[in-house]
From TrEMBL:
Protein keywords: Phosphoprotein, Two-component regulatory system
Entries under InterPro entries matching the protein: CheY-like_superfamily, Sig_transdc_resp-reg_receiver
Name of the protein in question: Response regulator
Domain of life of the source: Bacteria
Database matches in Pfam families: Response_reg (PF00072)
PANTHER family according to UniProt: HYBRID SIGNAL TRANSDUCTION HISTIDINE KINASE J
UniProt GO BP: phosphorelay signal transduction system
Organism ancestry: Bacteria, Pseudomonadati, Candidatus Auribacterota, Candidatus Auribacteria, Candidatus Auribacterales
4-aspartylphosphate: modified positions: 53
Amino acid sequence: MNPKILLVEDNEDNLETLATFLEFSKYSVATARDGQAALDAVEKEKPDVIFLDLSIPIIDGWEVARRIRSKQGSEKIVIIAFSAMALPQEMEKALQAGCDAFLSKPMPPNALIEEMNKILNKKND
């Protein structure tokens, strides 16, 4: 069974493109456009995987990852951060916040699925 995905992205074009790609690839996709909506969606949707833009309004992606990781049972959720800020310190900050991986924008949509599958396979071993 395909994992349930939460896609967190504030850019409408990116959100629509990635959500459409993931849905076409047979994934169940919920979306959020800001950090508070992302935290609310985690509670409501119970996603297996979160694709998390780090530069989002209200609550930034780093804080969203920290808050998710502070909850019991969150170690099962795969969090893949993505950002146009591909500096090494930004990547390290994302990993320290609790993200499992970091991808830099722009990236082909299939890179999200490849990274997700790689991490899911590791977690299931």
